[in-house]
Amino acid sequence: MDASFTAEQDEIRRTLRDLLRARCGPEELRAAVDRPQGHDPALWADLAERLGLPGLALPERYGGVGCPVADLALACEETGRALAPSPLLATAVLAAPLLLALGTGEQRARLLPRLAAGDLTAALAVPGRDLATALALTGGNGGAWAGGGRAGGVQAGRTDTGWRLYGEADQVLDGHSAGLLLVAAHTGGFARSRTLLFLVPGDAPGVTRTRRTALDATRPQARVQLRQAGAELLGGEDADVLGALAATGDLAATVLACEAVGAAGRALERTVEHVARREQFGRPIGSFQAVKHRLADVHVRLQAARSAAYYAAWATGAGERAGGAAGRVGGLALAQALDALRCAAAEGIQLHGGIGFTWEHEAHLYFKRAAGDELLFGPAHRLRARSAEAALLFGGGEVRV
Known about the structure:
Blueprint: H1 7-23, H2 26-33, H3 41-49, H4 69-82, H5 88-102, H6 105-117, E1 122-125, H7 131-134, E2 154-159, E3 162-173, E4 180-187, E5 194-201, E6 207-212, E7 221-233, H8 241-277, E8 279-280, E9 283-284, H9 289-321, H10 330-351, H11 363-377, H12 380-390
Parallel strand pairs: 1-4
Antiparallel strand pairs: 2-3, 3-7, 4-5, 5-7, 6-7, 8-9
Helix pairs in contact: 1-4, 4-8, 4-9, 5-6, 5-8, 8-9, 8-10, 8-11, 9-10, 10-11, 10-12
């Protein structure tokens, strides 16, 4: 493993940081999350057109840049620093890999170039609150999360004119604004029960999308209701949907880990800047030994999480080149990064004193990012338990938490 960054990676990080510093400050961030889309369309256009972020890890034959996964993860470390709201996670990390892995040649040629260009955004819709389960982050995804033949979830049925979907998916990231929905649905009844993925235009008849109030406003969510909505099957009926979702889950965990590391690093920087200015008893509070010890503990956690996230980014790419043998470490890196972000955000709120608890200050946004990601993709102890189970650390038995 070569731990040094390439010149291209350094340039991507520098350019992206400069852009976000100029276009995604505290005021711009609050204005963006209050927009109907939940993000600033002009900033998204710049991220797509100037930097090519949506297609960074997509093959060149589909309009992408063809960079390794590590480049996308490092770019997301910068978006995490700024808590930049955008459809990047939903489009480039959750939806595009599934289209690339499962789509037919015609579907890839039709949709991936538009995703890479940023002209089309996409969202992965799974039933209820089962995103972490569907991505195999906190347990196996071979269970009944998509419906399992019982009432609830999303059901798919074949008609004379194609497939029709009926049901509801909740907490869909950027589901209210996405132009394309990838919907996980159950089909086949009890005897041939299986989960398939379907392509549904966001504005298709029978689709109702409602933006929901989320703990972390920088990750907008929606409830998607389907009432006999027409759908196109992604790939074929024999596609390995569960395997593709698990591989996408490891990629998503790796990217989220780098995002969390970026957010934790910025939260720590802001806190260090504050304690260097804030004075008590005639001296900066940062000179007090107790404050130094607390911030040193945060720094150690952050560096450990950064190392884990960078290794996961490298291993995910190496796993792709080696047929998957070196990957599947994203969950552990995400657990470490979420712990570091929660610690950095909590200490930041405490050491900012009274202003740290106010709505007007930005400290609470970092804490909400940590808590929101744990609710969507964790919690950390279940991410670790799943990794231990997959590695057979306890004799191959299921780890109960």
